[in-house]
Amino acid sequence: MKYAAGIFFCIAAGIAAAQDPGRDMPDALRQLIESVAANADEEKEVDLQALYDTYETLLEFPLDLNAATETDLQQLQILNDFQIQSLLEYRKEYGELYTVHELPLIHGFNEEIAAQLYPFITALPVPEWQRYPFADRFTHGRHQLVIRAGRTLEEQKGYAPMTPEDREKPNARYLGSPWAFYTRYRYRYRDKAQWGITAKNDAGEPFFNGNNKYGFDFYSAHIQLADIGIIKKIILGDYQIQFGQGLVAWGGYALSKAGDVLSIKKQERGLTAYTSTNESLFRRGIALTLQHKQWNLSLFISHKNIDATTDSNAFSTILETGLHNTAGAMKKKHTLPETVAGSNLSFRFKRLKIGLTALWHRYGKNFQRDPKPYNYFELNEAQNANASLDFYSVWEKTSLFGEFALSRNGGIAALAGALFDLDAAFRLSLLYRNYARNYQAIYARGFGETGKTANENGCYIGAQWLPHPDITLSAYADLFSFPWMRYRVSAPSKGYEYYLQAAYAPDSAMNMYLRIKQEIKDENNNAGADDALLPQHTVNLLHARYEISYRLCRGLRMQNRIEISFYRADGREHGLLLYHNINYKLPAFPVDISMRFAVFDTGGWNTRFYAYENDLLYTFSLPAYYDKGARWYLNAHLKLRGNFDLWVRLAQTYFFHADTAGNGLNETTHPFQTTLKLQASVKF
Predict the structure, then answer these.
(1) How high is the pLDDT of residue 571?
(2) Which of the chain's ends, N or C, has fewer CB atoms near its CB within 10 Å?
(3) Percent of the chain at pLDDT above 90?
(4) Up-side HSE of residue 125: CA atoms within 13 Å toward CB?
């Protein structure tokens, strides 16, 4: 009987897959998000949502390989420079692709890479001028409305009734309800036209009352049009900036030492409309890109008020969390005016691109940081300016790139890298960076160990070898040093990072990899005391992971991971994470289900794990697994008639040997926390 049930299960899933093949996030993207989060600087916010949103847009409007430019292909993030050039040269020599299934035949591609790209690409064998008539961008696009709500089901301390002692404390309770709300309207016609508005209210923030009497706590809107004569792109409202290698201006996510050892070069996107919900990492105003033959000129200006800790004459910190759920946090909301203006001029030869970037910004008050030694070279005035020269060139089997930048105070930052396609089965990557301790660039996000793009020197070498079509071996080593003090490190220091991965993918039904990563660097003996010259110790952190993903039958895919971590400094910690994922597409019903069960055991925060979780459309979860406990989630997606979709997500983290869960105002009186999310989406 059990065999009959299993056969029925697989046949049913196969029927469902035939009806709706589904389009899941590729493993490369999932690993990329985990890597970015794990390497994120704790002092800086990272807008991972923008990365996810890019892929969700491509699911709706796949990239046409026959019309895609080099810049378009770069936004996929999965392809390296050699693969992009190989595709462009193939198209130039043989003409347009008749089908995306030609991709594995192109040098540098294989079935695994093609399978990851298929959901996001298409090939339209029609003339360029017929593809996107101007009038179509206003009438043939897609409208979408998304509404989401969620909360923690258990009562948290921040929402409990006030005690007499708490009435004297202004931050003892949250200002709003435990419900979080999100609404988004968007119109989009490929990359030619889009406009939309996003509204968000975090849990605990007032909603249509108090300081938010007009509704949500955060609003973002934009209008973007592209390819209008010499106007390559114009944006009104909120936007992001990505130029060069991030030494001057880089908004959104930034890759540094990700899973692909060849992805060390940032793929700039220039000016892009902002569609995420991070309340800090964007500009607000007008942005314009003009194009004439090989020349591109981008101009932008922005003005908005940002969150900061201020007094009458100065401010000491910029706050990037976007949370305004207590009286103290609400007082810091939008207290500091910020003006940003700049330009980028680029010229593209046949195999060489050169860019010049200039940026100026000014705050409404003087910047007066905490007078700690590690802040000695940081910006401490109301304004700053940066300028840079960047280049990128591909010559046969060699790709060279770099950027040289200067700040207003004379600080210098430089980066240079190279990619070598030495053989069809062997590739090499090199990168050197030298960021002076006095280089000041608030909006920079260059390649490095930290996210500050200052006070760092380093040398990176990576290699990828394919000894067999089904096997990929990857490795990198990164040696870095910090000439001046840093937060929690009260002396010049250095470190090393090593990475090794072996991946095996015999077909699209199964793939697996084994990864080992070790990081060694210096830190204060007393990590909490950073205002004195303290003795240092060496921190040694090792992560090892094995993951396998396999499709049992069409519509049913499973994934298993085991990961261990070891931390050694003045003490020792170790951690263990195990999880099992199931993704299933039901047959007779338009329902997709994904679920996970995980157990974890860590000695503390130092041995935490990051594991990507499937979530509702246009969002994802990336919790840090630490302490001892178990976590599960269940997602259900119901597709109804008329392009109407419903999502439900239920997740719970349970801590063993604990009486409470969470901390501060998020603490519950139970050893577990359960979150519920509901979402509705309609397209028209």
Answers:
(1) 82
(2) N
(3) 52
(4) 7
| Residue 663 CB neighbours (<10 A) | 8
Helix (H, G, I), strand (E, B) or coil at 55: helix
Q: Using DSSP, state whether 325 is helix, strand or coil.
A: coil
**Tokens 């990072």 found at:** 497
Residues 6-30, buried b or exposed e (16+ Cβ, 10 A)?
A: eeebeebbbebbeeeeeeebbbbbb
CA distances (Å), origin 577, targets 110, 113, 545, 608: 32, 28, 9, 9
Residue 57, classed as helix, strand or coil, is helix
CA atoms of 89 and 111, how far apart (whole Å): 19
pLDDT in tens, 506-548: 887 888 999 999 999 988 876 555 555 667 789 999 999 999 9
Output the six-digit token pair for 507: 């077909």
Rounded distance between C-alpha atoms, residue 219 and residue 211, angstroms? 14
Closest CA to 442 of 635, 672, 246: 246
Closest CA to 240 of 226, 254, 250: 250
Q: For 290-296, what is the mean pLDDT?
A: 92
545: Cβ contacts below 8 Å, ≥ 6 apart: 513, 514, 515, 516, 561, 562, 563, 564
Angle at 292 between CA 288 and CA 298, to 5 degrees: 25
Query: Over 70: is that where the pLDDT of 564 sits?
Result: yes
> From CA 360, how far away is CA 427, in angstroms rounded?
39
With 0.85 as the threshold, say if the pTM is over it.
yes
Write the DSSP assignment of 643-655 as a string of letters.
TEEEEEEEEEEEE
**Region 115-124: what's the mean pLDDT?**
82
Q: Token digits for 3?
A: 């065999």
684 pLDDT band, cuts 50/70/90, is confident
Q: Are 243 and 270 in contact (CB under 8 A)?
A: yes
- Distance CA(537)–CA(446), nearest Å, equals 27
Residue 93, C-beta contacts closer than 8 angstroms, at least 6 positions apart: none
Tell me how far the alpha carbon of residue 186 is from its chain's centroid.
Answer: 21
Residue type (1 letter), 619? T
**CA-CA distance, 479 to 451, in Å (whole number)?**
16
The Cα 427–Cα 638 span in angstroms is: 44
Over the chain, what is the mean pLDDT? 86
**Taking a C-beta distance cutoff of 8 angstroms, is the pair 266, 447 a contact?**
yes
Token pair recorded at residue 219: 């609003």
Provide the pLDDT for residue 259.
65
Percent composition of the chain: helix, strand, coil (DSSP 3-state, to 5)? 15, 50, 35
Residue 36 pLDDT: 60
**The pLDDT of residue 434 is above 90:** yes
